């Protein structure tokens, strides 16, 4: 969606998610209709205002917290007997659910029966999220009394609120429902509201289904942050799951709430890849959905998976995420096969992967680089990394499935490596750095950017081996030092742009903010390359930041330098929850065990982080080769498999 100068902030709100349902609230619990507040269904606000008054007064808000990915709990208090002193004697508890349900419970501490009048003021504009974000939402609509609640209608839709128990009185002109509740001594009474578009039944979120493609894995160990982060990450992934409307057995992850609650192909592939330790179901569904979107027929774009354009920071023009998605498709298929995707499913998806690889070779042509056709032949560092990985893992996949073309891909990848190590490396007195891009005239664009982490993300081949990288050993060592240095490591994670680079902005989403995706890839890549000190520093920083955000990592936060006693500054426009950061939580933690499966060969190799930066850590309920997989890494960095599929052997 487009950005507005007055985009409502998201950092200070509580967002309950069970797509296609959302509930967005401020910390006082009252929905006032301002900003983003309200209940949403499929991108439309079905209720914007829900304000409660008890005995003529608003409860005093004392606590607001997320109780689960799809539920927020608000607690307020009242004094009904001023003569009793300063102590509250009625507690008002509100549980708000993303599915459009709100349960309001009054708890009395009074020693005698208590009758209290309760009023709930309701309203809505039935505006879509884009109009709300741009400030063009219309006024509240007039209500009508409907059954045991209220109803609103306009040209674009309608919605209603049903109450249980039914109210004693309903005033459509004021949007009011009224009750007289009798509270026994020390007792409670509840009112439940159900918000629905007319004709819509109860919301059935994909993540709540028994057939959810994500395993409910658990972590335990010395560091209390790890279990909480894994639990919250999985909850957020489940909350963001959506079904393909034409093929409901296939699921994918929406990019993030509240701004991107739909399919973003590159984001969906990245998140599914990071979440592979939770099983292959999500990756398989995502691959099938995107295979149906692939462009076919004649033309230069034949074989591409379409994607949106996105900003690339202050030093590069916008880039096409379709290129990234097209290169990620064969990578995800190859790795999902290693994690346990069936041969039947692999064969069904293989033609799409072949077309992606054919597009890669046709677009690269006789040259070593995959250039950006929209910007005069600019060659981006991260695009070369994606292309190199796709060529090597694609070749491995083609060989394994008895298809031709693998040798040509490997030869091209070799030519790319040779040219890249010479053309993209910028020498300086400190050992050099990779350029973020190469201009059409061959000049390097020398800025230090988090795009360089993709050079460490080489991908998984057979037998637990990692594919060779674009950099040589010395260049990789220099890059590791740069990523672990103060210019890039903020203390909370990896900055998007070096702190001393021109255009650095700690809140710039491609210009200095910490983006969780690149931080997780850096941790995994550095650990795989043997640079555990740098990997551990970034890991601990990200986990400390996760605590600040109640273990629900946003897609980005400010790249300010960490100080003693400080905390990371939230980005006011960041999605939270978002698919990639939630999946990155899985990758950050499982990297410690270094799980490298080869299900077709019946083996799994463990390459744990030997320094054990979080002490002992164990994982249960992961999935390898279609079966539960449990592993523990001790304080000495030694890993032990505790549960695995029958016949799965530990590789060397």
Write a structural description.
By secondary structure, the protein is of the alpha+beta class. It has two domains: 14-204, Beta-galactosidase, Chain A, domain 5 (Distorted Sandwich); 208-643, Alpha/alpha barrel (Glycosyltransferase). The longest helix has 22 residues, at 343-364.
By CATH, the topology of the largest domain is Glycosyltransferase
In quaternary terms, these chains amount to single chain
Number of helices: 12
> Strand fraction band?
25-35%
Number of domains: 2
What keywords describe this structure?
2 domains, eight-stranded antiparallel sheet, 27% helix, 12 helices, 652 residues
Write a brief structural summary.
The protein is 27% helix and 25% strand. It is of the alpha+beta class.
Question: What's the structural blueprint in terms of helices and strands?
Answer:
Elements: E1 14-18, E2 21-25, E3 31-32, E4 38-41, E5 44-47, E6 49-54, E7 60-68, E8 71-78, E9 90-97, E10 101-108, E11 114-123, H1 129-134, E12 143-146, E13 149-154, E14 157-164, E15 169-171, E16 176-183, E17 188-197, E18 218-221, H2 225-239, E19 241-243, E20 251-253, H3 265-274, H4 281-291, E21 309-310, E22 319-320, H5 321-339, H6 343-364, E23 379-380, H7 381-400, H8 406-423, E24 425-426, E25 433-434, E26 437-438, E27 444-445, H9 473-484, E28 514-515, H10 516-529, H11 532-548, E29 556-557, H12 579-590, E30 595-598, E31 603-606, E32 617-624, E33 627-633, E34 639-643, E35 649-650
Helix pairs in contact: 2-12, 3-4, 3-5, 3-12, 4-5, 4-6, 5-6, 5-7, 6-7, 7-8, 9-11, 10-11, 10-12
């Amino acid at each position: 969606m487009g950005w507005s100068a007055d985009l409502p902030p998201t950092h200070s709100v509580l967002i309950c998610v069970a797509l296609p349902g959302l509930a967005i609230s401020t910390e006082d619990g009252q929905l006032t209709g301002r900003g983003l507040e309200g209940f949403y269904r499929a991108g439309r606000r079905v209720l914007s205002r829900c304000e409660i008054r008890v005995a003529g007064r608003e409860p005093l808000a004392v606590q607001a917290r997320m109780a689960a990915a799809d539920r927020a709990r608000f607690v307020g208090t009242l004094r009904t007997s001023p003569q009793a002193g300063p102590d509250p004697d009625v507690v008002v508890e509100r549980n708000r659910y993303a599915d459009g349900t709100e349960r309001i419970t009054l708890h009395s501490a009074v020693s005698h029966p208590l009758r209290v009048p309760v009023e709930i003021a309701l309203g809505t504009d039935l505006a879509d999220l884009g109009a709300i974000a741009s400030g063009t939402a219309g006024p509240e609509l007039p209500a009508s009394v409907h059954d045991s609640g209220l109803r609103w209608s306009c040209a674009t839709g309608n919605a209603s609120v049903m109450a249980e128990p039914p109210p004693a009185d309903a005033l459509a002109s004021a949007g009011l429902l009224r009750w007289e509740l009798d509270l026994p001594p020390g007792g409670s009474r509840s009112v439940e509201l159900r918000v629905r578009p007319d004709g819509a039944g109860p919301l059935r979120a994909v993540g709540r289904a028994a057939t959810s493609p994500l395993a409910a894995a658990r972590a335990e160990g010395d560091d209390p942050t790890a279990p909480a982060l894994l639990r919250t990450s999985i909850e957020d992934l489940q909350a963001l799951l959506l079904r393909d409307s034409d093929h409901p057995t296939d699921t994918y992850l929406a990019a993030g709430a509240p701004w991107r609650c739909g399919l973003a192909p590159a984001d969906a592939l990245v998140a599914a890849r990071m979440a592979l330790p939770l099983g292959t179901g999500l990756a398989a569904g995502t691959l099938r959905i995107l295979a149906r979107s692939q462009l076919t027929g004649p033309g230069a774009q034949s074989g591409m998976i379409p994607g949106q354009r996105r900003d690339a920071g202050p030093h590069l023009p916008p880039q096409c995420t379709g290129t990234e998605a097209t290169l990620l498709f064969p990578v995800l298929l190859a790795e999902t096969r290693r994690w346990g995707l069936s041969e039947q499913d692999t064969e069904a998806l293989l033609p799409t992967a072949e077309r992606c690889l054919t597009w890669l070779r046709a677009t690269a042509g006789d040259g070593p680089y995959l250039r950006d056709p929209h910007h005069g032949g600019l060659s981006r560092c991260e695009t070369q990394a994606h292309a190199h990985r796709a060529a090597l893992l694609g070749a491995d996949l083609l060989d394994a499935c008895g298809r031709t073309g693998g040798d040509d891909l490997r030869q091209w990848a070799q030519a790319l490596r040779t040219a890249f190590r010479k053309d993209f490396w910028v020498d300086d007195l400190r050992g050099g750095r990779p350029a973020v891009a190469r201009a059409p005239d061959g000049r390097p664009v020398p800025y230090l950017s988090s795009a360089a982490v993709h050079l460490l993300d080489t991908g998984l081949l057979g037998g637990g081996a990692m594919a060779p990288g674009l950099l040589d050993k010395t260049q990789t060592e220099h890059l590791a030092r740069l990523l672990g240095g103060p210019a890039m490591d903020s203390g909370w994670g990896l900055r998007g742009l070096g702190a001393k680079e021109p255009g650095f902005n700690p809140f710039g989403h491609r210009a200095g903010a910490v983006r969780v995706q690149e931080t997780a890839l850096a941790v995994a890549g550095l650990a795989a390359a043997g640079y555990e000190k740098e990997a551990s520093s970034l890991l601990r920083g990200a986990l400390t930041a996760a605590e600040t955000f109640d273990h629900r990592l946003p897609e980005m936060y400010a790249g300010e330098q960490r100080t003693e006693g400080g905390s990371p500054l939230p980005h006011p426009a960041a999605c939270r929850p978002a698919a990639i950061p939630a999946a990155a939580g899985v990758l950050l933690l499982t990297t410690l065990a270094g799980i490298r499966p080869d299900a077709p060969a019946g083996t799994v190799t463990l390459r744990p982080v030997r320094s054990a930066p979080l002490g002992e850590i164990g994982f249960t309920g992961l999935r390898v080769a279609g079966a539960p997989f449990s592993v523990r890494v001790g304080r000495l960095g030694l890993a032990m498999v505790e549960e695995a599929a029958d016949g799965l052997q530990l590789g060397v």
